[in-house]
């Protein structure tokens, strides 16, 4: 988790890119004025985003430089999802942005994939993705367009791109929600050691007769169990649901309207269904139908797949950190779509780093502080840490010095955490990072040793 943001063929650009990302993480903002501090800094970062050498593709390519190393030898959940970033516009100032959502809302779409350790749930970093804005409305009917002409093809492209990036992993399972339930994906992507786990969206026809959803209802009950659900939003708090489990094998048929007739006529998959029993009044009950290429021969296998699907929460957290709960990307006043696309690609990596920092607050993956902080920043942390400790055992930093968990504890204290109650969340960590940025700058000005040098782009 370093601060590399791409290789642009110019050492000065590379160093400015690293400083740009480092400040974005430390200050928890995408506001170029706040990141640049001085007029010179603001102009420097503005020129960086405007440079034709700096492209969205190069920034995205940088996401995986440390992820591929962290993934080696692990079973990796390659979790992908799309988020819409809306920006305020008026008729006279569209900023070159296309339409998102319904109505006349304009913005950028960011599709990202992150790597998560299947055993521990630790976020290993960003893998790949796409960032774009729509050129206009598509009038050609969806079924008349080939897959490559559809936005949904991104699910297949990113999964294919993940194969060489994560080739050192012991196993890869691509995890996605319902929008990724595309027949071509089931037919083309699976390989030995490369699996898919997707929530079913389409009630597909089966080769054996009947429909997919009816087959799930007819599988024998394999048991019931409590299922812990994380907090998804202020209106969807964490809770525990009692769910019933069913699973079995299905053979899905190629859709009759599928344009690509080279795809096999059938694909054999496993289907796992969890349905909530006696959901609380006013709460939408859990009902997941999960399709996978993994073998499922027992209830234990099925519950394991459910736990992997639950890890999708991690990428939702990354997207929340990008927006109002963290970097506040939607408030950017940058005036052109080209620069906003680059800013969004940078924000994905910054949000992933912040998410890793939040996750490591309990030290479960044993990462060093250098995974997120520079050596001068660690000097500041070393001096600052003891001043935040209290007299009781609960108010002492319990983590090894110079570990990422040790640094996360300091960020939490700076963000207002009092060492009691629930663990600090991303908003607390964000506040702490912002406070630390100001302290670090003052500390190094005091000692006349700048924390880093930005180089001016001519």
Mean pLDDT: 89
List low-pLDDT spans. Answer: 450-458
Q: What proportion strand?
A: 15-25%
Quote the CATH topology of the largest domain.
Transposase Inhibitor Protein From Tn5, Chain A, domain 1
Give the number of helices: 14
Which structural class should the secondary elements be placed in? alpha+beta
CATH class of the largest domain, named Alpha Beta
Order of helices and strands: HHHHHEEEEHEHEHEEEEHHHHHH
Gross geometry? globular
What can you see in these coordinates?
This protein is of the alpha+beta class and 458 residues long. Helices cover 34% and strands 20% of the residues. It has three domains: 11-50; 56-331, Transposase Inhibitor Protein From Tn5, Chain A, domain 1; 361-446, no CATH class. It has helices spanning 11-27, 32-36, 39-50, 56-62, 67-70, 154-165, 183-188, 212-218, 299-310, 313-322, 337-359, 375-384, 404-414, 426-446, and strands at residues 75-87, 98-99, 106-117, 123-132, 171-176, 194-199, 221-229, 239-253, 266-276, 287-292. Strands 1, 2, 3, 4, 5, 6, 7, 8, 9 and 10 form a ten-stranded mixed β-sheet that branches. Strand 3 and strand 4 form a beta hairpin. It is globular, with a radius of gyration of 23 Å.
């Amino acid at each position: 988790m370093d601060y590399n943001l791409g290789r642009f063929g110019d050492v000065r650009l590379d160093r400015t890119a690293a400083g740009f990302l480092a400040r974005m993480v430390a200050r928890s903002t995408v506001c170029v004025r706040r990141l640049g501090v001085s007029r010179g800094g603001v102009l420097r970062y503005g020129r960086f985003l405007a440079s034709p050498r700096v492209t969205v593709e190069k920034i995205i390519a940088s996401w995986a430089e440390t992820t591929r190393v962290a993934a080696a030898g692990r079973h990796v959940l390659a979790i992908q999802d799309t988020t819409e970033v809306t920006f305020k516009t008026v008729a006279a100032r569209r900023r070159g942005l296309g339409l998102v959502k319904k109505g006349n809302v304009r913005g950028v779409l960011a599709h990202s994939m992150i790597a998560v350790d299947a055993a521990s749930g630790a976020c290993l970093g960003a893998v790949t993705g796409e960032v774009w804005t729509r050129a206009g409305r598509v009038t050609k009917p969806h079924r008349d367009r080939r897959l490559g002409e559809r936005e949904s093809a991104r699910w297949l492209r990113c999964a294919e791109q993940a194969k060489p990036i994560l080739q050192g992993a012991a196993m890869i399972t691509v995890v996605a929600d319902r929008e990724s339930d595309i027949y071509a994906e089931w037919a083309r992507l699976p390989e030995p050691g490369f699996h898919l786990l997707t929530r079913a969206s389409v009630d597909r026809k089966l080769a054996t007769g009947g429909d997919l959803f009816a087959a799930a209802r007819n599988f024998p009950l394999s048991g019931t169990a409590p299922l812990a659900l994380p907090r998804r939003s202020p209106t969807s708090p964490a809770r525990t649901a009692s769910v019933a489990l069913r699973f079995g094998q299905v053979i899905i048929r190629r859709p009759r309207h599928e344009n690509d007739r080279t795809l096999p006529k059938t694909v054999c998959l496993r289907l796992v269904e969890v349905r909530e029993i006696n959901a609380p009044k006013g709460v939408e009950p859990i009902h997941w139908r999960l399709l996978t290429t993994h073998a499922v021969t027992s209830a234990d296998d099925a519950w394991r797949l459910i736990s992997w699907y639950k890890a999708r929460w991690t990428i939702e957290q990354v997207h929340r950190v990008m927006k109002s709960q963290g970097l506040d990307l939607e408030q950017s006043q940058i005036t052109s779509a080209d620069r906003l696309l680059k800013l969004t690609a940078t924000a994905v990596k910054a949000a992933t780093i912040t998410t890793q920092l939040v996750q490591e607050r309990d030290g479960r993956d044993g990462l060093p502080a250098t995974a997120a902080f520079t050596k001068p920043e660690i000097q500041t942390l070393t001096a600052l840490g003891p001043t935040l400790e209290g007299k009781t055992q609960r108010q002492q930093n319990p983590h090894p010095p110079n570990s990422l968990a040790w640094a996360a504890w300091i960020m939490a204290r700076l963000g207002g955490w009092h060492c009691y109650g629930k663990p600090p969340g991303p908003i607390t960590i964000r506040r702490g990072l912002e406070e630390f940025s100001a302290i670090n700058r003052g500390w190094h000005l005091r000692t006349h040793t700048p924390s880093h040098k930005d180089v001016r782009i001519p």
